[in-house]
Amino acid sequence: MKTELNITLIARGCAITGDMVVDHGISCFGLLDGGIISTQGLLHIGEGGLVKGVAQGEHVRIDGRVDGDVHARGSLEINGQVCGDILYCGTIRLGPRAALNGTLKRVARMLTIEAESEQKTVAVAEVRASESASGERGESNVTDISRAIA
Q1: 88 vs 73: CA distance, rounded Å
Q2: Is 69 found in the same domain as 34?
């Protein structure tokens, strides 16, 4: 059985405004003005990359900068800058260039998922309810979550 490797790349010079939710790995070397959630795989903020919002993932590696909270459900490696609170439940490794401005807290795995995710789940349920009530569903490849966020 062959496994597929899915990675989203935000390259240098690329600027994205808004929240991102992916179900695979992501590497950010550009600017993301919003939150980022990776449900599986590696969430990597590369050198020169900047995230202005919450960064949440299974395995998180920060070599760039995050201006917001960081939530790691598995491993966390920081060799860049974080200006915000850090919640993690697995292992953590701080490199020689790590700079932290916030609190560092080890919590249970379920507590690393931010409360905002519950609000998104409610929003998705509301979108589905309105679609089923109207009997319509527009043709789109956009997920319910991203529609609910907008």
Answers
A1: 6
A2: yes
